[in-house]
Design goal:
Layout: H1 15-30, H2 36-53, E1 61-69, E2 78-86, E3 92-94, H3 98-106, E4 110-112, E5 130-138, E6 145-154, H4 162-178
The protein binds methionine sulfoxide.
Methionine sulfoxide binds near residues 63 and 99.
Pfam families: GAF_2
InterPro entries: FRMsr_CS, GAF, GAF-like_dom_sf, Phosphatase_reg/MetRdx
GO molecular function: L-methionine-(R)-S-oxide reductase activity
Length: about 180
């Protein structure tokens, strides 16, 4: 049964351990539930509470959530705001625009130590100094398609490293196979 305790993370654990718990809890929550709104919402909660339990810079995460592929037909494909934790954010982002748009159009993780140095960065919140964006991809070969992105922002510079990349990419794979996109 789903219980709010899933969002409780012990203080003093390593970032690796916190991510392992996120993955484990997420897998449990997705059991018998394939709706992406529901699963992304619970995942945003797990990530937010995991970061808050860690030392700086992870504790300085100020936005954790998702943009999904906008089903509305536009000239260029675009992302639309999905479930998240943090302050209100930009509603739509064209593929190729900013960090999120770059992850969507290139289908690769964007690890940005200083957002000011990223060409075209979208400053939804001036507090955000660094960012990691991981695409969620379905399909193989030519049919590969970005259906959503994981976006985590941090109020400190250099908020993310290869550990975040490794585990968020694992989380992305889990979401690819656990939801009906
Ligand atoms: N900074 C992002 C926009 C999204 S928000 O930060 C939530 C970007 O440049 O893609």
């Amino acid at each position: 049964m789903v219980h709010a305790d899933a969002s409780n993370f012990a203080q003093g654990v390593t970032k690796e351990e916190a991510y392992e718990q996120v993955l484990l809890q997420a897998e449990g929550l997705f059991d018998g539930q394939r709706n992406w709104v529901c699963n992304l919402a619970n995942t945003a909660s797990l990530l937010w509470h995991a970061y808050k339990s860690l030392p700086s810079p992870s504790s300085q995460v100020n936005w954790a959530g998702f943009y999904t592929l906008d089903p509305q037909k536009t000239a260029k494909p675009q992302l639309i705001l999905g479930p998240f934790q943090g302050k209100v954010a930009c509603q739509t982002i064209a593929f190729g625009r900013g960090v999120c748009g770059a992850a969507a159009s290139t289908q690769t993780t964007q690890l940005v130590p200083d957002v000011e140095k990223f060409p075209g960065h979208i400053a939804c919140d001036g507090d955000s100094k660094s960012e990691i964006v991981v695409p969620i991809i379905v399909g193989e070969g030519d049919a590969r398609k970005v259906v959503a992105i994981i976006d985590i922002d941090c109020a400190d510079l250099n908020g993310f490293d290869e550990v975040d990349k490794k585990y968020l990419e694992q989380l992305s794979d889990l979401l690819t196979r656990s939801c009906d996109w």
